[in-house]
Structures are given as C-alpha cells and as structure tokens.
Amino acid sequence: MKVTTTKLPGVILIDSTVFGDHRGFFMESYSSRQFSEHGIECVFIQDNHSLSAEAGVLRGLHYQLNPKAQSKLVRVAAGAIYDVVVDIRQGSPTFGQWEGFILSSSNKRQLFVPQGFAHGFCTLVPQTEVLYKVDEFYSPDKDRGIAWNDPVLGIDWPLLQPILSDKDSKLPLLADAEINFVYKG
C-alpha cells in the first residue's frame, strides 16, 4: 500500500497493492493493521454505496457536526469521480482550502477524509458507483453542507451545470454554514 499525504493535513490518498493477471485482479481495499500503520485509527462502523446513473451528478459538499462527525474512506467500484475535500476546521492554517482528486475503478485509488472536512464529488462517467466507509452513523439532525459553487472556495469542478439533489441545491455558503470543528494543531 502506498500512502500519499496531501496539502490538507489528515487527508490521505491511498494506492492499494493490486495483484492482476489474465483473470482480473485482487486487492485488499481495507486492512485495519495497514491503515493503523499509516495513522488511520478509525473504527469504521458502516459501509455506504451510491449509484449515479448520469455523468455530472454532484453530491456534496457534506459533513456532520460534532458529536456525530464522520471520517470517510472513499473508493469507486465502477466509473470515475472528481472527489473534493474542504478544510472546515476553525483556526486551521488551511481553513477554507480545498483539494480535488480523481478516483476511478481503473486507478483503484482511495481517499481518507477525516472529521473536520466537507466532502463532495461529481461523476465523470455514467453508471458510477461509489463505496465509502464511515466511523459514525448518519445523523439527520447533525447533517450539514456547503454550496458546491461557493465563490470564496473557488472549487474548479470539471462541470458547469451539475445534476443536484434538491437538498444540495439549497446548501449555504461557507460563511453562513454551521460549523463546530476546531483545529487542534
């Protein structure tokens, strides 16, 4: 397993070792021992699976408030996404900064998104399936988000007219969002 740190402290890009031959491939997509060796100590308690039928579906930018905040381990089983994380930890030297990554079924990359970051993605091809582990259950009363097109964030999405849920089309700007994460350096 190859681990790459990013400009956002705590966000980690993971390339699993893939064993392939004429039959296909095998890889360990998760090993608590290997992840722990790289500082990922989460106890994942739920797996989520989404299908986006069309290219251009944008989901996010989502997070849950404390004490129900979630860390996520994201990967793509079919298709491809542009995956974005935004630092929303008050006092962080990278507060409001974002970074984007291509995750696909062909590159088999995974992204670890710790608590304190908003997360979203847009599909690059039809029939994209995203799998992600979380370390906290969904909490409707703690569910929050930030507008995908907040001009202060300036996220360089690879699309202009995304397909959004009603909920995601009404998310506030970062300046108006409820946030209770504090950077602990």
Provide a descriptive summary of the structure in words.
This protein is globular. The chain is mainly beta. It has helices spanning 32-37, 166-169, and strands at residues 2-5, 12-15, 18-21, 24-27, 46-52, 58-64, 72-78, 80-87, 98-104, 109-113, 117-123, 128-134, 143-145. It is built from two helices and 13 strands; from the N terminus they run E-E-E-E-H-E-E-E-E-E-E-E-E-E-H. The strands form three sheets. A six-stranded antiparallel sheet has the order 1-2-10-7-12-5, with no helix packed on it. Strands 9-8-11-6-13 form a five-stranded antiparallel sheet, with no helix packed on it. The protein has a two-stranded antiparallel ribbon with strand order 3-4. The protein has a single domain (2-176), classed as Jelly Rolls (Sandwich). 5% of the residues lie in helices and 40% in strands.
Give the CATH architecture: Sandwich
Tell me the number of helical segments per DSSP (H or I, 4 or more residues long).
Answer: 2
Written as H for each helix and E for each strand, in order along the chain, the element string is EEEEHEEEEEEEEEH
- How would you name the CATH homologous superfamily? Jelly Rolls
For the record, what CATH class applies? Mainly Beta
Question: How many E-type strands?
Answer: 13
Which fold name corresponds to the CATH topology?
Jelly Rolls
| Integer tally of domains | 1
